[in-house]
Amino acid sequence: MDERDASEPVSEQAGSAGAGAGPGSTPGGGTHGDDTAGPDAAARVGGPESGGARPDRSRGVSRRWLFGASGAAAIAGLAVGAGTTAALHGDGSSTGSGGRFWPPSPELAIGPARVAAPPVTGLHLQFGADAAREAVVSWQSPGSVRNPVVRFGTATTGFGATAQAQTRVYRDAASGTEVYAHHAVLTGLTPDTDYIYAAGHEGATPELGTHRTAPAGRAAFRFTSFGDQGTPTLGKLDNGRYVNDNLGSPVAGDVTAGIEHLAPLFNLVNGDLCYANLATDRIRTWNDWWANNSRSARHRPWMPAPGNHENERGNGPIGYEAFQTYFTVPDSGAEDLARGLWYAFTVGAVRVIAVANDDICLQDGGNSYVHGYSGGAQKRWLDKELAAARADRAIDWIVVFMHQTAISSADKANGADLGIRQEWLPLFDRYRVDLVLCGHEHHYERSHPVRGVLGSDTLTPKPVPEAVTPATATAPEIIDTSKGTVHLVIGGGGTSAPSNGLFFPGQQCRVITGVGAVDPGTGKKAPIYVMEQAPWSAFKDPEHPYGFCAFDVNPGSPGGHTTMTATYYAVTDTLKPVDSFILTRPRSDS
Question: Where does the record place Gly residues bias (predicted)?
Fold first, then answer.
């Protein structure tokens, strides 16, 4: 990756960008005039395109047009269910003004918004069951609405297709406030193609977004990942117990701007999205998280894994109803209790699997202790999912993302969890999982490739030195993941409680091996720790509290090897490459 591309300034105040891009939005989605987001927040990290798996912005829809002055100004007046008005043109002009013409639709018209209609907020994307041919467009409203719908198409066809949204509602147990989430499934899409869409409901001004479908079959692409973000909105509701009401910081906005700068096909969020379960006002905290991230998530799927701070007391039987309401992810066949908490999807030759670790972790980390809630159903599903992926000759890579971690060298943080080592790691070994992405610890750490255990009571992961080609002055470290799994902790997404300053000296780890009685000071079951040596630890970043990882997939040639180039970027006033390495493995069609 070209370091010049990644070292341009990131906005120091790229925080909440309002409810989403609209009139006055920048090409990167930041909103002019917002009191928490600096003008052109995302655009300021724009610049020359780097090499590797960059999207080809020369084809398909132009986001610069879509959110530029002419396009946004005209489309902002769009209203679903409005009366007779002018047709929309491709350059943002209306009928008779001489611009390029969108195919006319009687349902897509410019007209006044109904004053009483709730606005469209939190616009975001998820991949559908087939990431190359399906997508889900989702948004929220603070009240009930009529006719939630998405119009979509390509730059050639315009908004010619319609997908009706289904609405899910939950009532927050703490405040009694209801949240209405609307989810429209877009089907019949063409792989590796740019789409435009407008999401809205009767009487409200639609919000706009773009989506690029996944490739069908082996292809080059980029994805990113981080966990533990919080929100960039501070000081609204002080909480004396925590650093602030929801463990957020202004860097939460900078991380989002950094993701947009690298323009991945999709982003993985490794749990602890906004810490609403710590907040005085959960709904406000979720709204702030969406306001910050919709500027990215409306243009690329943000695929989440639930963390312990998505467990909210009283919100559903096991506390995840808010998370389950806001997101629609590919169906895993889980019962309603666990719907949407674990799932999988395929992009190119990469099978991506999300798991919900509170089910098997020993630590008591949420508002309620829900260890074992699936009764083994998640593990049975994961076993079958991994077996099918590794047997599929069209799948080269298996990437698992989750929240809590099996590795951590931090003292006085959370530590590694024996439950993960007992339940997940034998499956990862059996099916030769390539990459495991986590959060939970608020720092960056990378393991050596590991396979099996060293025989300790803590099931210490065993490093595989023969899988590693050491870095040289001209080449990064190369790791053969067919011989061992690499674990990454990427928990510096923006939380105001970083743990990068808590690393043990040398190679040591605290492992949670059980829980004791409830600690009156925390209200949680006290963790029982055992110390171990950590020969599995390959790299840790004690200097930078915040950052994210980018992964560039190169499919290689038939019968040969495929590679995944990984870079961890610290988010300071620039995107600073801190750790870079290359994963490689034989293609499954070899």
Answer: 17-31
